[in-house]
Each structure stands twice: as C-alpha cells, then as structure tokens.
Amino acid sequence: MPVRIPRFRPLNGDVVEINDLNEVFQEIAGDITSGLNEHSFLRAGFVPYGPQPQAAAQWERSSIMRTHQVTGTAGSPFISDENAAGQVVLELQVDTVGAMLHCTASFQADFQNNGARFWIAVNGATCTEATIGDIDVNGRIRVGSRPSLTGFAPFSLDTVQAVPPGTVTVQLLLQSTGGSVTIRNRELFVLEMIA
Amino acid sequence: MPIQEGTSIDASALNTELGALETEVNNITAGYIKKNSLRAEQIPSALPVFGNVEPLTGGKSSTDTLTFAATGSANRQPVTGMTLTWAGAGFTVNSTDSYGAKAILVLCNIDSSIADMGGTPDTQVYYALEYDDGVSWNLISRTERRGGGARLDPDEYQDVSIRTLLTPADVTDIVAIRLTCWVGVTGDVITRDGNITALPLYCEVV
Fold first, then answer.
1. Does B30 touch chain A (CB under 8 A)?
2. What is the pLDDT of residue B180?
3. Most buried of A17, A129, B178, B197 (most Cβ within 10 A)?
4. Do the Cβ atoms of B145 and A154 come within 8 Å?
C-alpha cells in the first residue's frame, strides 16, 4: 500500500501558524510510518541506497533466492561419445552477487553397452560425480556393465557451493567409458541463495 | 528538499513540496535499500506459508503392486502414496505476485522392480511427475525417467530419482502433484519405499 500524505487544508486563509504546521507534520510522519510498515519489507529505519544500484545487486535486498534453469527438449536425445575431457550436457551462466549455489542435475541416461561418468562442475571444478557401468554394484543398477546389452537409469546429482561475486559457470558433464551414451529429459537448475 | 528562504509558505506551496516527498517515498524500491538494513521479519520467506501455499512432503514405506494390462504413457497409473495435495483450490505460480510462489522445487525418489514380466529383455518401467491444475492431470514430460532394460532382472530393484524446478513457464494453477508409472511390457510393477516433496519458492526466476 503506498504512503499517502494528506492534502494541506487551507490554513486560516493561507496564514501559516506554527501549531497548525506541527499538527500537519505529525500527521505526515504518522502516515509515512504506517505506510512503510504496510510495505512489509520496509520500515522506519530503512536506509535509502543510492545511486541507482547495479542490476546484479538489485535482487539481493528484495528476495533471498533466485533460480536459474536450463533444460533440454523433453524426449530429445543428447548423445555423447567417448570424451576424456568430459562433454558438456548442460550449462548455466549465473551472474551472482556472491551466494550459496545449490546445483541440481536430473536426467535419463540410456546406456548402449557403455559405462559413464557424470558430474557437476562449478567454474570448471568437479563438485560431484557419479559413475555407472564399469563398477561392481552387484545389484540394483547394473546398467552398462555388460556387452551387447542396453540399459536405462535415471540420475540426479546435487551439490552446494559457495561462490564469490561475478559470473559463475555451472555445468553438467558426461564422459563415457567407450562409445555412445544417450541422455534424455535433462534438466540443470541452480538455487542461488544469499546467506 | 528544503523550503527556500523567502518562499511564501502557504497551503499550495506546502502541498507541492510534500506531494513531491510523497512521490519519492512511494517510488522507493527494494533495490534502494542498503544491505542488512532490513530485519528478518521484513524479508519475504523463501518458503511462503500463507493461504494454500505451503511446502508438502509425503511418501510411503510399503510394498505395492501396480498391474498394467496395457502399455504406454496413455495407460499410466499413479503410484500409491506418492500424491501431494494442497488445501482448497491450490495456488498460482505467479511471476507477478510480490509475495507468492514463483517456482516449485520437486524432489521425488522411488524404489521399484519389474515383476511377472517373463524376463522380457526390453522390459522398461517409466516414471514421471504430473500436476493437477484443478481441471485435469497433466504430464510433465521432461521428468520422465526410465528404468529397466536388460540389466534389470525381474526380482531386482532400482532406485529412481527425479528432481525438477517448475516455473510459471511450466505451470500456473496447481492443486496437486503426483508420481505416475507406466510400462513398455504389460505386467506388474512393484514399488517399495518412496518419498516426494514439493517446495513452493518465493524467488526471482532468472
């Protein structure tokens, strides 16, 4: 609700008297205080901040969280061949004022005889990693470890990283252990939180 | 702005000056507020809890069987115990509401197996999230996750995890969200423990 300042009433034919002025200014002060209280995020005691803040800094004072998201088209395949360096499956650029980044990747992997490694990297540094295929898991997910067979598995990876102000690159990377691995329904999102 | 020396102080002049002040005060945006000048109660919660908007979580610790006489997503069934329903008419994921939810973080895990499918090599089990907009259930296609294939023996279980962030681009009105399942070969799917959480977020969607 906006602050409303009452109109000055005619003061004895435009003759200003101190008592009238004081009364009116008290009304104004009361209205501003109550108006600011109704803003919920503003109260008396706030400090105006100027000059015009930079775009990247604007949000930090009105919300404590931003979200960033990138997805592939549902069902559309992303196919990776063996790549020792890791192939970028999804990438986000986060222009941050400095925050905690909660990064999540979720996707469907279709293995074609192959094992694979997936990981999330923030500014190129590996944060979390999952390996499937050439490992002895002896049970639940054994996809990709046997030749000439196809397997499917869903994956979700999460990591939380503290980052300084600036542009941060968040990536989901894939490295197959030989041959193609297909990724579908991929999604990478970041919850950017001011601590 | 100070009233200048020699200015005639009358009602009209004061109204002009104070009108400008009124405009200035009302034009103050959150971006002009210095960091740390606000107290906790003045900052909107990241997890709005008002009206029908609230975080929900649920799940199951039981073994249930879904029997499929037909294949494909058109014949999908909800997974027992994996539905979350907001009170009343639900809420709107509204990007213009100053204090409403602007995104929903959904976390879902299920442990399942294929049973009684005759060891078909290409047997697959599909999971995906759906939301109810108050009119019908709608499939969220990008959350489809497929388990199984030749790797999964009939008596073998597989963990399926789904994470997604729903924004106004995905959904506007929402009443409920749930996990559904379908198959590539008719038969039974056994689900064991599972959990599902939906967190409406007050945030800026970038």
1. yes
2. 97
3. B178
4. yes
Interchain CB distance below 8 Å, A42 and B42: yes
Query: CB-based contacts of B201: which residues, under 8 Å, 6+ apart?
Result: A65, A67, A191, B46, B47, B48, B101, B102, B103, B104, B105
Q: Measured between alpha carbons, how far is B204 from B206 in angstroms, rounded to an integer?
A: 6
Beta strands in A5-124 (DSSP E): 65-71, 78-80, 87-96, 99-112, 116-122
Rounded Cα distance, A30 and B11, in Å? 20
Is ipTM beyond 0.90?
no
Which residue among A14, A104, A140 places its CB closest to the CB of B10?
A: A14
Paired with A90 in beta bridges are A172
Partner-chain residue, chosen from B124, B164, B204, that has the shortest CB–CB distance to A187: B164
Does the pTM surpass 0.95? The reply is no
pLDDT digit string (tens) for A29-88?
676 666 555 544 443 334 333 333 344 444 444 456 889 999 999 988 898 887 778 899
Most confident listed range (A79-83, B23-27, B94-98, B179-183): B179-183
φ, ψ of residue B25 to 5 degrees: the values are -65, -45
Q: Which long-range contacts (CB under 8 A, 24 or more apart) does A129-133 make?
A: A129/A157, A130/A155, A130/A157, A133/A177
Helix axes A18-38, B11-26, angle to 10 degrees: 20
3 state SS of A115: coil
E strand spans, B73-175: 77-85, 91-92, 103-115, 124-132, 137-139, 145-149, 157-166, 173-174
Residue A172: pLDDT over 80: yes
| β-strand pairing of A65-71 with B204-205 | parallel
B46:A64 CB<8 A: yes
Q: In chain B, which among 135-194 make CB contacts under 8 A with chain A?
A: 141-152, 156-165, 167
